[in-house]
């Protein structure tokens, strides 16, 4: 959910761009972190762990903890809490360690 | 290879202030930050600061980076800023390796100021890894920087200043805060923050902790238990609260990896919430020419981080032969400011920590 009215803050947003999440078309603001764009759409599960297949969301949101790793434009292990959203980005849930191509 | 007098790692309050003071003393400075803007965690702090005028009291944290950037502008001939730049390693020959835009770059400075800050701690309980369980700083970033609400309702674990302030900010952003807990018999933050929350109807519940998180793919419910005055669980007092977000604000721990790598002597100091470098009054570590400032030197407030940054910048520059004409009076002023910030009962544990680590 987006915060529309805030007593102190105004949010500077980039232009609205389209991207895909697991093949589904979505919209978000250019330049915001991918995880924020997904969270605004109610998507909290970003990946699944290697050993126990446990769901992973973000935790620190500043690129520290690696809990938010996803596959972006075919590249695995992208920290989506700090990776900026771009027009046409292809974002996918990461399962396990991901594969380098 | 980039060569410079002083490299500063981290562009938060400590790092920016270090850059200003090193540059104003005449040293060439390279300021590195992995984010795409300077300010560190100030960029999400919508509350007004305490301390005195010199540390920007009664100004909102989010407005401080701009004030500092203007000050930095005066010395722009001496300051080079590299953003989106992550330091990968800090080696014993004094060379740093950094990554920017997938490029691998080496930097050779004469001295280094490490101002890498801190990261959030994470309490242990079953299912503590469920999506929907977020650090308090993460919730702040999401809602205050990007305008995205963390969820429908939030439960806050931890009632220090961060827990109280973030709870208040959640209410401001229109999110329901179901309660704030802490393990001890009284909240740890300032009464001014706690009172604001209470007036808004948010229950503050000392003597509780989270023992279980429930949910299939994401958080749905938490189980709490009451604690006695010795923070021991009281059997039979468990109860559940439905919430889709659990916010963790149980403290920060210093990010000292680079200091270990270059060989600084480190000590665990409980009062500073982790391993911190042994250093002298001028903030120089046991490795000559490597200085520290801010949370990496021990968890404190942004106000003391700014003063430490100024002190480290001033002293680091002098050691390289760039002596500020007002060196003595500035140094005395910074030490006095730190002393004042750490005085009184609030500064008790900081003073105890310092006594163990400053040589």
Report on the structure:
- The complex is a heterodimer of chains A (101) and B (359).
- Chain A has 101 residues and is mainly β.
- Helices cover 7% and strands 30% of the residues of chain A.
- Chain A contains 1 helix and 8 strands.
- Chain A has one helix at 34-40; strands at residues 16-21, 24-29, 47-48, 55-56, 69-72, 75-79, 90-92, 94-95.
- In chain A, the strands form 2 sheets. A 5-stranded mixed beta sheet of chain A has the order 2-1-7-5-6, covered by helices on one side. A 3-stranded mixed beta sheet of chain A has the order 4-3-8, with no helix packed on it.
- Chain A is globular and about 45 Å long.
- The model of chain A has no long low-confidence stretch (mean pLDDT 93).
- Helices cover 28% and strands 26% of the residues of chain B.
- Chain B has helices at residues 13-24, 64-73, 136-145, 161-172, 191-199, 257-262, 302-319, 327-341, 348-357; strands at residues 2-9, 29-32, 79-82, 85-90, 96-100, 103-114, 118-120, 133-135, 153-157, 176-182, 204-206, 208-214, 221-226, 239-242, 245-248, 252-254, 266-269, 274-277, 290-292.
- In chain B, a hairpin with a 5-residue loop joins β4 (85-90) and β5.
- In chain B, α1 runs parallel beside α7 and α7 (302-319) runs antiparallel to α8 (327-341).
- At the A-B interface, α1 and β4 of A face β8 and α3 of B.
Give the low-confidence spans of chain A.
none
Number of DSSP-assigned strands of chain B: 19
Rg of chain A: 14 Å
Average pLDDT for all residues of chain B: 94
Our count of helices of chain A gives 1
What's the helical proportion of residues of chain A? under 10%
Radius of gyration of chain B: 21 Å
Protein chain pair with the most extensive contact, residues per chain: A-B, 34 and 35 residues
Q: Specify the biggest β-sheet of chain B.
A: 7 strands, mixed
Span from first to last CA of chain B? 34 Å
Q: Note the overall shape of chain A.
A: globular
The structural class of chain A is mainly beta
Low-confidence stretches of chain B: none
Order of helices and strands of chain B: EHEHEEEEEEHEHEHEEEEEEHEEEHHH
Biggest sheet features of chain A:
5 strands, mixed
> Structural class, from secondary structure content of chain B?
alpha/beta
Order of helices and strands of chain A: EEHEEEEEE
* Sheet with most strands: strand arrangement of chain A: 2-1-7-5-6
How many β strands of chain A by DSSP? 8
How far is the first residue's CA from the last residue's CA of chain A? 35 Å
**Oligomer category:** heterodimer
């Amino acid at each position: 959910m987006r915060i529309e009215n805030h007593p102190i803050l105004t949010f500077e947003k980039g232009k609205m761009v389209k991207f895909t999440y697991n093949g589904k078309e979505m919209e978000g603001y250019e330049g915001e972190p991918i995880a924020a764009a997904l969270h605004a759409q109610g998507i909290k599960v970003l990946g699944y762990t290697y050993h126990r297949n446990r769901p992973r969301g973000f935790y620190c949101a500043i690129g520290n903890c690696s809990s938010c790793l996803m596959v972006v434009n075919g590249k695995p292990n992208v920290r989506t809490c700090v990776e900026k959203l771009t027009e046409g980005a292809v974002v996918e849930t990461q399962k396990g360690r991901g594969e380098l191509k | 290879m980039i060569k410079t007098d002083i490299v500063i790692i981290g562009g938060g309050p400590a790092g920016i202030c270090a850059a200003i003071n090193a540059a104003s003393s005449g040293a060439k400075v390279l300021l590195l930050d992995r984010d795409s803007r300077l300010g560190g965690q100030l960029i999400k702090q919508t509350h007004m600061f305490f301390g005195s005028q010199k540390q920007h009291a009664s100004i909102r944290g989010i407005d401080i980076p701009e004030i500092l950037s203007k000050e930095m502008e005066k010395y722009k001939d001496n300051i080079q800023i590299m953003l989106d730049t992550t330091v990968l390693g800090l080696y014993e020959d004094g060379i740093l390796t950094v990554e920017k835009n997938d490029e691998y770059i080496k930097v050779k400075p004469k001295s280094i100021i490490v101002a890498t800050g801190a990261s959030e701690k994470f309490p242990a309980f079953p299912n503590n890894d469920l999506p929907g369980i977020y650090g308090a700083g993460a919730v702040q970033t999401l809602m205050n920087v990007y305008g995205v609400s963390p969820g429908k309702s939030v439960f806050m674990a931890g009632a220090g200043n961060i827990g109280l302030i973030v709870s208040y900010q959640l209410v401001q952003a229109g999110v329901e805060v179901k309660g704030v807990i802490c393990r001890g018999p009284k909240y740890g933050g300032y009464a001014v923050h706690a009172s604001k929350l209470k007036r808004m109807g948010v229950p503050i519940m000392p003597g509780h902790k989270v023992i279980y998180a429930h949910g299939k793919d994401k958080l749905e419910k938490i189980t709490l238990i009451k604690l006695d005055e010795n923070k021991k669980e009281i059997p039979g007092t468990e109860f559940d609260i439905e919430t889709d977000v659990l916010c963790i604000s149980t403290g920060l721990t210093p990010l000292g990896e680079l200091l270990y790598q270059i060989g600084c002597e480190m000590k665990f100091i409980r009062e500073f919430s982790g391993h911190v470098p042994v250093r002298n009054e001028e903030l120089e570590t046991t490795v000559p020419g490597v200085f520290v400032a801010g949370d990496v030197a021990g968890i404190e407030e942004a106000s003391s981080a700014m003063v430490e940054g100024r002190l480290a910048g001033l002293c680091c520059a002098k050691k390289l032969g760039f002596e500020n004409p007002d060196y003595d009076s500035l140094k005395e002023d910074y030490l006095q400011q730190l002393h004042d910030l750490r005085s009184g009962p609030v500064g008790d544990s900081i003073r105890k920590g310092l006594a163990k680590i400053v040589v």
